[in-house]
Automatic annotation (TrEMBL), chain A:
Cell wall biogenesis/degradation keyword on record: no
Keywords: Membrane, Transmembrane, Transmembrane helix
Name the record gives this protein: NrsF family protein
A family per Pfam: NrsF
Record's keyword annotation contains Transmembrane helix: yes
Domain of life: Bacteria
Bilayer-spanning residue ranges: 21-43, 58-78, 90-110, 122-144, 156-173, 185-203
Source species taxonomy: Bacteria, Pseudomonadati, Pseudomonadota, Alphaproteobacteria, Hyphomicrobiales
From TrEMBL, chain B:
CDD domains the UniProt entry points to: Sigma70_r4
Residues making up the signal peptide according to the UniProt record: none
Keywords: DNA-binding, Sigma factor, Transcription, Transcription regulation
Species the sequence originates in: Mesorhizobium marinum
Family of the protein in this entry: Belongs to the sigma-70 factor family. ECF subfamily.
Lineage: Bacteria, Pseudomonadati, Pseudomonadota, Alphaproteobacteria, Hyphomicrobiales
Domain RNA polymerase sigma factor 70 region 4 type residues, every copy: 119-171
Annotated ranges, domain RNA polymerase sigma-70 region: 29-96
Name of this chain's protein: Sigma-70 family RNA polymerase sigma factor
């Protein structure tokens, strides 16, 4: 098939793919609906959420998870386009915020309580439910990546996992009664990185084009 | 590659995306020229044909044209696609070049392929399901229009368009993987 025939063939195929903005809007809506629906069904917010919301430790969890979600999402949108610059260093913002809160906690918490605050009561719950709640969103983001053209599919899949983890952790944080930064900095990242690893493996296979 | 040439490319692609077929063909011709030079400079051994990279890249550009942001330069986007396809092709070529572990050494060398007449894309075309294959080859090899193809194959024009699109997407998925 020579070039002119080939080019003429391509220009005759006038079925327009959906714009990326539309694909992402759809993926985000599906991700939030599925994650929030699952969370409300199996966990739900903690009963004392009103009093918890008066403490900085509880509120700070949402700052970290929301920052992870938003910075990750921004990078993800760029990673779906060939040659676009994804601002990956921004992804360090959430870990930096987390580290800062750990340092504060080390100063203000009674020395005898550090160990028990780190281990907490819900480590296993955290490691189970963040990946579980994040699985649906991860699938939605991978489908949007597949519609796009990520030129680093594994990296894009890993960031999709971070974004799904940020969303799931935001929901889970409203259920969990372990608010110490020591707990959050130990268990949340493990759960989120699990999603990122699955995302990287799946991205390499699913987001090929 | 961000300059006057790029502005012209962006203008053509924008016109193409709003339905100007002539501008689209023009854009693809220019893109082919750029990708050809890009691939020729990087392919330094005989295992790969730059023309295969050109066609594979054009097909990807076509199927992924919605990933271009119309306020950004075309060059970085186009070359990122070409680079991705080139690396993919290198990877496949390396796999094919692996030395057999045992036996096989006395087997006769395969006939050198006639590269000019059979490209990866023609091989991919040959593996399409029958209906998609007849539609795509009527248009691409015989040079027929959508209407002529519909008449010759006793299909509606809508069905021809669907089969053409599906066939091209399937070719992109199987490109070079046979």
């Amino acid at each position: 098939m020579d070039q002119e025939h080939f080019i003429r063939t391509l220009s005759l195929d006038d079925r327009r793919p959906a714009p990326m903005g539309q694909a992402w809007a759809l993926a985000l809506a599906a991700a939030v609906l599925v994650a929030a629906g699952l969370f409300a069904t199996i966990l739900g917010p903690r009963p004392d959420i009103a009093t918890a919301a008066e403490t900085w430790r509880f509120l700070y969890k949402f700052l970290v998870t929301a920052v992870l979600f938003l910075t990750g999402l921004w990078a993800l949108l760029a990673l779906a386009r060939p040659g676009a610059r994804a601002r990956l260093p921004l992804l360090l913002l959430a870990p930096a915020l987390l580290l800062a809160s750990v340092l504060v906690e080390l100063v203000v918490a009674p020395a005898g309580e550090l160990g028990s605050r780190l281990v907490g009561n819900n480590a296993l719950l955290c490691l189970t439910f963040i990946p579980l709640i994040g699985a649906g969103p991860l699938a939605a983001f991978l489908l949007a990546l597949r519609h796009g053209a990520p030129d680093a599919p594994a990296r894009a899949g890993a960031v999709a996992g971070l974004v799904a983890g940020g969303l799931a952790a935001t929901l889970y944080a409203s259920h969990c009664t372990d608010d110490s930064p020591l707990f959050v900095a130990t268990w949340y990242p493990l759960a989120v990185l699990l999603l990122a690893a699955v995302g990287a493996l799946a991205g390499r296979r699913l987001a090929r084009w | 590659m961000v300059g006057e040439g790029d502005e012209e490319l962006a203008r053509l692609l924008n016109a193409a995306l709003s339905g100007d077929d002539q501008a689209y063909a023009d854009f693809l011709r220019r893109a082919a020229g750029l990708v050809r030079r890009f691939a020729q400079r990087r392919i330094t051994f005989g295992g790969l044909d730059p023309e295969d990279i050109v066609q594979e890249t054009l097909l990807a550009v076509h199927l992924k044209r919605h990933t271009w942001r119309n306020d950004s330069p075309v060059g970085p986007w186009l070359y990122a696609i070409a680079r991705f396809k080139l690396i993919d092709a290198f990877r496949r070529a390396n796999r094919r070049l692996e030395v057999p572990v045992d036996g096989d050494f006395d087997a006769p060398a395969p006939e050198p392929e006639d590269r000019a007449s059979e490209r990866e894309i023609d091989r991919a075309l040959a593996t399409l399901p029958p209906r998609e294959q007849s539609v795509v080859s009527a248009i691409s090899v015989d040079g027929r229009s959508i209407a002529e193809t519909a008449q010759a194959l006793d299909m509606t024009e809508g069905a021809v368009r669907v089969a053409l699109h599906r066939g091209l997407a399937r070719i992109a998925r199987t490109f070079g993987r046979m």
